[in-house]
Amino acid sequence: RQAGLGQAARMLIQVHDELVFEVPVAEAEATRILVKRVMEEAASLDVPLVVDTGLGRSWDEAH
């Protein structure tokens, strides 16, 4: 578990370069910011690693 990630947040699935989390609405924005930062800082590369995020009550809504 990543430090700072709410206790109720959980990753449901990872497919290729996509992660899907289930998070209480009250923790959604803070979790989105944390996951984006952790993913963008995961590796030191010569080019920036840019991560897109989305929030929604379903996968379709988040995209």
Gist of the model:
This protein has helices at residues 28-40, 59-62, and strands spanning 10-15, 18-22. By secondary structure, it is an alpha+beta fold. The chain has a domain at 1-43.
Describe it for me?
This protein is α+β, with helices and mostly antiparallel strands and 63 residues long. Helix content is 27%, strand content 17%. It has a domain at 1-43. Strands 1-2 form a two-stranded antiparallel ribbon. The N and C termini lie far apart (25 Å).
Layout of strands and helices, then pairs:
Blueprint (H helix, E strand, L loop, with lengths): L9 E6 L2 E5 L5 H13 L18 H4 L1
Antiparallel strand pairs: 1-2
**What is the string of SSEs from the N terminus onward?**
EEHH
Low-confidence stretches: none
Please, what is the average pLDDT? 89
**Structural shape:** globular
> Taking strands numbered 1, 2, ... along the chain, how are they ordered across the largest sheet?
1-2
Cα gyration radius (Å): 12 Å
Tally of helical runs = 2
User: Distance N terminus to C terminus?
Assistant: 25 Å
- Major β-sheet, in short? 2 strands, antiparallel
Helical residues, percent? 25-40%
Structure classification: alpha+beta
The total beta strand count reads: 2
What share of the residues does DSSP label as strand, in percent? Answer: 15-25%
Supply database-style keywords.
63 residues; alpha+beta; two-stranded antiparallel sheet; 2 helices; 27% helix; 17% strand; globular
